[in-house]
Amino acid sequence: MFENVITANRLDNGTVIYLTRESLWSHALADAWVAEDEDEAVVMMAAGENAENQGIVVGAYLIAAEVLDDTVVAVRLREGIRADGPTRRTDVAGADEISEQAHVPLR
Amino acid sequence: MYRYDEFDAALVTQRVAQFRDQVDRRMKGTLSEDEFRPLRLMNGLYLQLHAYMLRVAIPYGTLSSVQMRMLAHIARRYDHGYGHFTTRQNIQYNWPKLTEVPDLLDELATVEMHAIQTSGNCIRNVTSDPYAGAVADEVEDPRIWGEIIRQWSTFHPEFSFLPRKFKIAVTGSDEDRAAIRVHDIGLRIHRNAAGEVGFEVMVGGGQGRTPMIAKTIREFLPKAHLLSYLEAVLRVYNLMGRRDNKYKARIKILVHETGAEAFADQVEAEWAEIKNGPVDLPASEIARIESYFAPPALDASSHGSTDHELRMTDDAAFAAWVGSNVLDHVQPGYAIANISLKPVGGVPGDATAEQMDIVADLAARYSHDEIRVTYEQNLVLPHVRRDDLYTVWQALVEAKLGTANIGLLGDMIVCPGLDYCSLANARSIPVSQQISERFADPERQRKIGKLDIKISGCINACGHHHVGHIGILGVDKRGKEHYQITLGGKPNQDAAIGAIVGPAFAETDIADAVETVVDTYLGLRADGEEFIETLGRVGMAPFKETLYATH
Amino acid sequence: MPLIKDGAFVTDTWIRLADDDTLLEVGPIIVSLTRWMAARDTLLARGWPLGICLASNESCEAIAGDLDRFEVVALEFPTFMDGRSYSAARLLRERHGFSGEIRAVGNVLRDQFLFLHRCGFDAFEVREGETVSGWLQAVSALTVWYQPTGDARVTVPQLRQLAPIAAE
User: Is the separation of the CB atoms in A23 and A32 below 8 Å?
Assistant: First the structure.
């Protein structure tokens, strides 16, 4: 299973974001651009690095994700926790951040 | 407690302005992330699993009610309404925004607080005995020296790019309530044969990948020479510490590879050159700082009325809380009251903004305005009149801060783990919640007695698992969380690193395994024997047998 | 590379020789410790000002006895995270009394200027695009210092000694 989704943090507020097919960034893993092969993943990584160089995001890296039904799910537990917020805590997870601007356009 | 003068205040304010400029340059792109990272780390700001994480310093674990109210305000205004108290007596916020951190730091500065050097390869927050200044077995209040070290180490121009982080702990009693022997430098204040007060200096303790107990490199260092001696240790470390391998860069590796005696000789040789120089403080400055730690004006006539005794008889829950959470104060009629941040099924060490405000109010009214943070992730009201304990307890219970479990099984040290930390291999909080719920019955915990469970989500050991009576280390086995048990660790003056019992347990089995260990102990213990004593007497074999016999 | 000294850009008159560069017959040169140890007499015989460059893992004790031969000691930062040269500079100034130029070379960034200066560096090989105002801003970002070094800055403990005794 190769790594097929780009994730990063927004530089200004640190929230977890995923690169979408439109080269925007979403807080929802479900919106992520899932690469179909390793060549596509290379292109995605370049887009991630570009966003880093432009100072929009920080710490872009590839993760492995699966498309299930109509959503996207992280393979590793760590990435699942990063996508969904801390487990066992329903009052204060990052969920309320998603209500903010859901898509951060690339400049 | 210490109060800033104009110089202390200026430094903190200037630092915020400097950091604000660095954040601006980062946002504009004139600073790259590689260049910015060490700068933000030196201001306590990490990029963590979910967001930025800010670690605010609570020097030697002491704060006032005003400061605690500010921590509550920060949680509400800049974060998600809660904070986490750490095993270095600091507080962590998990959701600050980079662009708001300069404002956050400015607000902290108004109450003499900061996030300076709580991360990075520099000298970190100096930790100490949470009962300092309140406890009878103290030779001298170690926080005086905590403050002296804090100032000397802040923006030390020579030691801001060390091979790795550097942690110093200081205690004023022989009973070590600050785990000094697993610190890079541990300092024990004591009297020599001539009755002079000085430090035993221990170097090279630490947990993590290669846990080690610190070695004494000097039995007695006269107080007045503390800073010059520390400067000698740090200079040897800065020059000789390994920089080729991040995992071998702590001073414990240098001491181990050099040999403690040879290392001590190097320090002594360097110290000989500088000990009569200007870095040691003049006696007047030591006295000035010392004066801030004079005991508060306690009521000498108070000895705890019969009211208190009656309450103890009438109210079993209150009596239980006094039994586990309350310690004698050096002043008769007063008590040290521990506030447990380990409610059953809760997140260990977390407190909501509301809870912080309540603790602040209680401190202002009942504890001479003082609060302590312990490295075991609890809080303390250090100066409470015995007569006030019942009222304080009632308020704590209402705020869900009244759990009577200090030192008992439910009082676990637990790192944030994979729920929060990008270094982690496994979650630690849900494991602690399972164990906490399994052993929820307070009567059962009291029957079991003193038992320290410490849980880390990775080998960095921020949960102190190496020095837990039962240590639990989360590992990743083929993508699944597993937990390895160690037994026999001790953090205090009998410091010892725990030994692994056997193969790791699956996440579904770890609570059972802990219960097996506890039941094994209960079946073997002699009258009045604590877990750690029984283990010392019978060894690991009975536990290995019961844990792995059926496999 | 641009060189800042005493708060201004200066022309660097020194040539830094690699170990395998032909030895220049004239002009001030900076050589490595290796070259100094191998060709000490030849270098001294030139009769031109001499400087030496130490790598971060080379001890300043190796040149402590010869400091009067050098007008410049350059201390290398392979990465700005390698803080060994801060100690080396302090030892050169405070232990061995070196009064020549101590120059920071390598990965030297604005946010290190103040600490470098406090430790005894007085010349800084900086990145292209660095400015004098950037330098000045960096070294004046903090005006309060707790701990003494060999610099002339008055420390907080010293200021406290001068302050009138508080009424309380």
Answer: no
Does the distance separating the beta carbons of B49 and A82 come in below 8 Å?
A: yes
Residues B390 and B443 in one domain: no
> Could you give the CA distance from residue B115 to residue B239 in angstroms, rounded to a whole number?
27
Domain end residue (candidates: B257, B290, B323): B290
pLDDT in tens, B325-352: 999 999 999 999 999 999 999 999 999 9
- Looking at the fold, whether B90 and B163 belong to one and the same domain comes out as no
| Cα distance between residue B60 and residue C147, in whole Å | 20
User: CA triplet A65, A70, A72: central angle to 5 degrees?
Assistant: 15
Q: What's the domain count of chain B?
A: 4
Domains assigned to chain C: 3-142 (3.20.20.70)
Give percent of chain C with pLDDT exceeding 90. Answer: 90
Q: Are B135 and B327 in contact (CB under 8 A)?
A: yes
Which residues in chain A have Cβ-Cβ distances shorter than 8 Å to B82?
92
On whether both B543 and B427 belong to a single domain, the answer is yes
Range of the domain at A61: 5-86+93-98
- B279 with C147: Cβ contact below 8 A: yes
B449: left (phi over 0), alpha (psi -120 to 50) or beta: left
Residue A76 maps to a domain: yes
Does one domain contain both B143 and B106?
Answer: no
DSSP-assigned states of every residue in B77-134: HHSSSEEEE-TTS-EEES---GGGHHHHHHHHHHTT---TTSSSSSB---EE-TTTTT
Residue with tokens 């898509």: A103
**B394 shares its domain with B418:** no
Count of the separate structural domains present in chain A:
1
Let me know whether B97 and B236 are in one domain. Answer: no
- Beta bridge pairs of residue B64: B370
Domain CATH for B213: 3.30.413.10
Q: Is B31 inside a domain boundary? A: yes
H/E stretch holding B532 reads helix B531-538
Neighbours of B345 (CB within 10 A): 13
CB contact under 8 A, C83 and B11: no
The whole model's pTM is what? 0.95
B46: nearest CA partner in chain A: A14
Burial class (CB in 10 A: 0-12, 13-18, 19+), C81: middle
Domain that holds residue B487: 414-548
Q: For residue range A78-104, what is the model confidence (pLDDT) as tens digits?
A: 999 999 999 866 554 333 333 333 334
In this structure, the answer to whether residues B451 and B338 fall within a common structural domain is: no
Q: Does residue B404 lie within any of the structural domains?
A: no
- Specify the CATH number for the domain of residue B342: 3.90.480.20
Same domain, B385 and B432: no
CB B150 within 8 Å of CB B208? no
Helices (H) and strands (E) in chain B, counts: 18, 21
List all residues of chain B from 6 to 45 with a beta carbon under 8 Å from chain C: 7-8, 10-11, 14-15, 17-18, 21-22, 35, 38-39
Residues 18-47 of C with CB under 8 A from B: none
pLDDT digits (tens, 9 = 90+) for C101-131: 999 999 999 989 999 999 999 999 999 989 9
**Distance from C-alpha of C93 to C-alpha of C90, rounded to nearest angstrom:** 5
